Amino acid sequence: MTRYSFLSLAAQALNGHRGWSPAWRDASPAPAYDVVIIGGGGHGLATAYYLARDHGIASVAVLEKGWIGGGNAGRNTTIIRSNYELPGNAPFYETAMKLWEGLEQDLNYNAMVSQRGVLNLFHSDAQRDAYARRGNAMRMHGIDAKLLDLADVRRMAPFLNYDQARFPIQGGLLQRRGGTARHDAVVWGYARAASNRGVDIIQNCEVTGVVRDAKGAVTGVETTRGAIRAKKVGLAVAGHSSRVAAMAGLRLPIESHVLQAFVSEGLKPIIPGVITFGAGHFYISQSDKGGLVFGGDIDGYNSYAARGNLPVVEDVCEGGMALMPMIGRARLLRSWGGVCDMTMDGSPIIDKAPIPGLYLNAGWCYGGFKATPGSGLCFAHLIARDAPHPSAEAFRLDRFATGRVIDEKGQGAQPNLH
Amino acid sequence: MRIPCPFCGDRDAQEFVYRGDASVAATGAPDDLYLRENPAGPMAEHWYHARGCRQWLVVVRDTRTHEIHSATFAKAIAS
Description:
The complex is a heterodimer.
Chain A: H1 6-14, E1 32-38, H2 42-55, E2 60-63, E3 79-80, H3 90-107, E4 118-122, H4 125-140, E5 146-149, H5 150-156, E6 171-175, E7 179-180, H6 183-196, E8 200-202, E9 207-212, E10 218-223, E11 226-235, H7 241-247, E12 254-266, E13 274-277, E14 282-286, E15 291-302, H8 310-323, E16 332-343, E17 349-352, E18 358-362, H9 372-385, H10 399-402
Parallel strand pairs in A: 1-2, 1-11, 2-8, 4-13, 11-18
Antiparallel strand pairs in A: 3-7, 4-6, 5-6, 9-10, 10-11, 12-15, 12-16, 13-14, 14-15, 17-18
Chain B: E1 2-5, E2 9-12, E3 17-21, H1 30-34, E4 42-48, E5 56-62, E6 68-73, H2 74-78
Antiparallel strand pairs in B: 1-2, 3-4, 4-5, 5-6
């Protein structure tokens, strides 16, 4: 594999860029592996990479039903942040945040990680109290957080609608280290680094069944490209976790919901970082290409359609207009939908399944992208050592039976409200 | 998406509150509180017509296409 550097770029430039080789190997399935990961998105590929890098397990296959990064890794709004409050969540998302900060050097791949800041606005005294508390909790977990008053926010984002009577902006909670990353590059970077360490990335290979022995233990998978034996099978198919788990006879505390996202035509730089509206559900950032990338609520009903309905489009655009009326003149270029694993408490699951040989990485709700490196690191640790990584030990499957739920939003057991 | 309410007729889905998988029994056991059927295809689910006749419905809807196959009063199914 060519190491990407200024020198290799200059040498290729002299050669008319004719000497580049494919970044990763498009493999065919072997009959057996030590570990099979189902799902070639960011989480699956990151898991394979950390299995090879940290645990010396290179006999790994990543099975992808379509093309890598073609699912939710290609449908998110690219935000990275670790502004979580609860003890079960904060250490995990900060682990992921620290990995983002060193990701490009580690992978030798430009993932365009841009720590341009995440600003959550508040619009009432009660919300200020809640955000102050969140910021304090974050700092106690070693995460950066700063409570901004109105003058600070006005300096950062003079274009917001400060004078509106219904939801006046009072300030915001800022995580400067948050920001955005290039979603496709994250997938390709992990694929290249994993492939380079001997991982087989197998595309157009849909898992159609889970093979179990007489005692019930998982021994492999049936796929559209034949049966593959494996000592351990890991699931990283968020959005479709319930369907794949059902192949092994498992029912999960998950509903699959549709989340829509939107991008405008390309504009000159205007939005400095990620900004979220505290009085409705609306968040926005601007891509390096200039498009305004924004979204809001999930549609609220089970769906695998990967497209949503118009009421949510209206609701998201109303949130945008309430917060920054200037975007009313920008034209909407595209909108799309992704299928999200919504769990009953709004938090993910990284745990052994109650079936020997099967491991679950699921339930990322609509916040899986930011978790990608941490999810891979912790899932690889779980698969290799059969014990949870210290920063992800709260993400247990049995927390719903034991009552140790991690309900960051405080909504109770109703997935469409998280 | 429009839901054919047996009392009110075809109504916008925004008038309804969604409460998911209709196969869940209200026993209070953790499995019933938290585990859900989550199929890709036809699924029976509870919708409450909050801004209409205020009846609970069992709607069979295809989660791949959003096509609605049937809508029945939940109390008619329960009795």
